[in-house]
Amino acid sequence: MINIALVQHRKHKSTKKIKPQIVDLPSDFPDVEFVKHLERTIKSRRPTKVMLNGSGMDKEWVWWVYPKWKDIWEKKGVKMKYNAKEHCVLMNYSKELKDAYKTFLKYTR
After folding, report:
1. pLDDT tens by residue, 9-60
2. The CATH number of domain 21-108, selected from 3.30.110, 3.30.420, 1.10.287, 2.40.50
3. Could you give the C-alpha distances from 94 to 25, 32, 33, 55, 61, in angstroms and in order?
4. 69 CA to centre of own chain
5. β-pairing, 48-51 with 21-24?
6. Where do the structural domains in the chain lie, given as residue ranges?
7. Are 78 and 91 spatial neighbours (Cβ–Cβ below 8 Å)?
8. How many beta carbons lie within 10 A of that of residue 97, not counting itself?
9. In what order do the strands lie in the sheet with 88-93?
C-alpha cells in the first residue's frame, strides 16, 4: 500500500522590504517641503528618504531643530532617523506608535 500524505499549503508572508522613495529638498522653503514629505509619508504609509544636501538645513538645523520636529511628528506616527553619513532623514509610518500615543493621552487625562 502507498501512503499518500496530504500537504497543507500555507500562504507565505511577503518578506520583501519596500525601498524608500528618495527625495531631494529644494533650496527655497526647505522646511515647507519637508513637512509636505512628512504628511505624504502618513498618507501613503510608505518610507521616504529626504536628502538634505543643497537645502538650508545644515548641521546646526539637525542639532537644534530636528529633535523638536522628531518629538512632534512621532506623536502623529512618523518615525524619523537622521543619517549623518549621507546627511538625510529616513521616515517611516508606524500605526503602533500613533496608537500608543493616543492610549497615553487617554490614561493621562
Report:
1. 677 777 777 888 888 888 888 888 999 999 999 999 899 999 988 777 788 8
2. 3.30.110
3. 23, 22, 21, 27, 25
4. 13
5. parallel
6. 21-108
7. yes
8. 16
9. 21-24, 48-51, 88-93, 78-83
Cell for 57?
Answer: 538645513
Q: How far is residue 41's CA from residue 25's CA, in Å, rounded to a whole number?
A: 15
| Cell 519637508 -> residue | 34
Alpha-carbon radius of gyration of the chain: 20
pTM: 0.74
Give kind and range of the element (H or E) at residue 43.
Answer: helix 30-44
For position 25, what pLDDT does the model report? 86
Closest CA to 33 of 82, 84, 94, 89: 89
Place of cell 519596500: 18
Owner of C-alpha cell 511577503: 14
C-alpha–C-alpha distance, residues 24 and 29, integer Å: 13
